[in-house]
Amino acid sequence: MVDRLANSEANTRRINIVENCFGAAGQPLTIPGRVLIGEGVLTKLCRKKPKARQFFLFNDILVYGNIVIQKKKYNKQHIIPLENVTIDSIKDEGDLRNGWLIKTPTKSFAVYAATATEKSEWMNHINKCVTDILSKSGKTPSNEHAAVWVPDSEATVCMRCQRAKFTPVNRRHHCRKCGFVVCGPCSEKRFLLPSQSSKPVRICDFCYDLLSTGDMATCQPTRSDSYSQSLKSPLNDVSDDDDDDDSSD
């Protein structure tokens, strides 16, 4: 089915519409063999609060961006190669329902659909696309993934020292290895994580000690280790900054 659609005029027209919605700031999306599988609005758990994002699933990439004008204009385009993606379902808790994790070596985050049916359809289509592209390339699924950041609102004190309280002066920072919200003194060190950056990135002292001794696996968080804490985040107890979780610290 995908192969038949690859060179169809309808598919080319749909992809061109997506490109036009992102404008000149977006990357070109039309390449031979690429098919737009589906699209929709998902709630992405960002650093500051959950926010609506427009997602587009192609047979080889996942694209998302901020909604400026629904179905007309989007910005801050992100492109994720599907060959690097793994997904995990998230249990419903409170106001956060119908969610799953999108995990890649460079970035991982949670998204939520409006209904259980929509969640199932998204996950099934993503898994099918990932399976197909890995089968064609002969590559194996990625075993490495970046930590899911704990939202700012979940930490009033440093998650490592448990003493430093966060204020407008004493800022929150995120460890790039475990995803915890930590204070400045607990995250003064940098370490090179090649899958995330070509330069050394901020990590907490706990992860730095483990990485320095080569114990990489111990400080790689499990889903319950860092992410489950974010499930308790109230949807309205956060600042209204225009995110994104791609911000520096």
Automatic annotation (TrEMBL):
Has keyword Translocase?
Answer: no
Domain (PH) ranges: 35-131
Which residues are in the FYVE-type domain? 152-212
Keywords, in A-Z order: Endoplasmic reticulum, Endosome, Membrane, Metal-binding, Protein transport, Transport, Zinc, Zinc-finger
Listed Polar residues bias regions: 221-233
Instruction: Cite the GO molecular-function annotations of the record.
Output: phosphatidylinositol binding; zinc ion binding
The record's listing under SUPFAM superfamilies reads: FYVE/PHD zinc finger (SSF57903), PH domain-like (SSF50729)
Which chain regions cross the lipid bilayer? none
Q: Name one GO cellular component term.
A: early endosome membrane
- Intracellular or extracellular location(s): Early endosome membrane; Endoplasmic reticulum
Q: Name one GO biological process term.
A: protein transport
**Record-linked Pfam families:** FYVE, PH
Write out the coiled-coil annotation as residue ranges: none
- Where composition is biased (Acidic residues), the residues are 238-249
Main localisation:
membrane
Using the record, list the residue span of the signal peptide; answer none if the entry has no such feature.
Answer: none
Membrane-topology annotation of the record: Peripheral membrane protein
Q: Read off the InterPro entries from this record.
A: PH-like_dom_sf, PH_domain, PH_domain-containing_F, PH_Phafin, PLEKHF2_FYVE, Znf_FYVE, Znf_FYVE-rel, Znf_FYVE_PHD
Region Disordered, as annotated, extends over 221-249
Is Metal-binding there in the keyword field? yes
Function of the molecule: May play a role in early endosome fusion upstream of RAB5, hence regulating receptor trafficking and fluid-phase transport. Enhances cellular sensitivity to TNF-induced apoptosis.
What is annotated about its quaternary structure and interactions?
Answer: May interact with EEA1.
- Name of the featured protein: Pleckstrin homology domain-containing family F member 2
Origin species, per record, is: Eschrichtius robustus (California gray whale)
